[in-house]
Design a protein that fits this description.
With 397 residues, this protein is an alpha/beta fold. It contains 14 helices and 22 strands. The chain folds into 2 domains: 174 residues, Flavin prenyltransferase-like (Rossmann fold, 3-Layer(aba) Sandwich); 205 residues, CoaB-like (Rossmann fold), CATH 3.40.50.10300. The strands form 6 sheets. Strands 13-12-9-14-17-18-20-21 form an 8-stranded mixed β-sheet, with helices on both faces. Helix 1 packs parallel to helix 3, helix 4 packs across helix 6 and helix 5 packs across helix 8. The longest helix has 16 residues. Bound molecules: ligand PMT.
Length: 397
Amino acid sequence: MTGVLQGKNLVLGVTGSIACYKALDLASKLTQAGANVDTIMSYGATQFIPPLAFRSLTHRPVIVDTFDPDSELSIEHVQLAEKADLVVVAPATAHFIAKVAWGFADDPLTTTILATTAPVLIAPAMDGHMYENQATQDNIEKLKTRGIRFVGPASGHLASGLTGIGRLVEVPQLVGHISALLGRDGDLAGRTIVVSAGGTQEAIDPVRVITNHSSGKMGYALAEAARDRGARVVLVSAPTGLDDPAALEVVKVRSASEMRDAVLEAVKGADALVMAAAVADYQPADVSDQKIKKDSSALTIELERTPDILMEAQGSFLKIGFAAETEELLANAKDKLDRKALDLIVANDVSKEGSGFGADTNKVTLVGKSGEVEDLPLMSKHDVAHRILDRVKALLG
Ligand code: PMT
């Protein structure tokens, strides 16, 4: 299974900002994901980073001069513009944005943008006052009405030493937005998929919780894979150490009850619910207002059942559950499939090496409602996610 970036022709425009150093990482990540990345640098960008750096990472020539007599392409801006699946400009300066807004074509990047029919994604990076200046805002609005998409800028530390808006968004966010844009007409376009992820935390007192080892990786991989196949995705996430995925809706929750409320709200009008979260089955019956003090005696905490979210979620959407098991994998999974009236269950042997909690890989068996069993080999959680979504797609018809 390959990702949405595999084999895609991307034009990476780089303009003159100190944030150019992040564009090197972006070029590398896109190339590693299988995209063909053609870099076009403005003169300003070449003052920060030599073209050779991009050439070394992308293994392709870098274009800096519209009239380069040694060029391998005859009319580069036209050729690249025509074959591009997407043009991304990161970082984009105020000057560059102004030139595109006014239709200038005085360098290879602006000419490529004028000549392309591919989607264009612009990630601005500049001083906060330059960004907020009405001239820049007007230019951005003008470009948005022409269908050009923007991501960022983010807020935080700026190269000027000030803190505020103007930072280039981080590379994983850029890759997420690029992937979402490339996958927008995928086989799940027009569908809404709700995914839960992470391990819920049930409070004992203000400082202690009952939780489990879920890292959220499986659920986040599902959410990103569904996004990259064109679905609108709502990710209901219990606490994890992961960054929010780009270009999808993230609802943060803590406990099983909070997850229940968020999931029941999100599934209204959805096509599928995929519960990859490790939801606590029990919660303390009473939550202490104050930190419980230790003494020499043992402490007993009474636990009560949490709401069963999959059981409570009723509607015309598909219900896909996971079964995290350490024994009797298939028997226990089939029991959950029937009891929770699921369309599909992902039986997950969490005692296997490289499988289940925390790992980047997973070993699962898919069990359908009429009992059919598909045993998958150990594979990345990204690939597992796509195999589950293949089944979701087939079930949706
Ligand atoms: O997050 P990672 O580190 O990547 O690990 C992935 C994973 C191991 C958490 C994931 O692959 C997995 O198996 N998730 C389900 C864990 C779980 O809670 O399984 P369960 O067998 O206890 O629950 C069965 C199903 O009912 C699950 O879909 C669960 O989300 C759901 N459930 C459980 C309890 C509850 N109160 N409400 C529920 O809806």
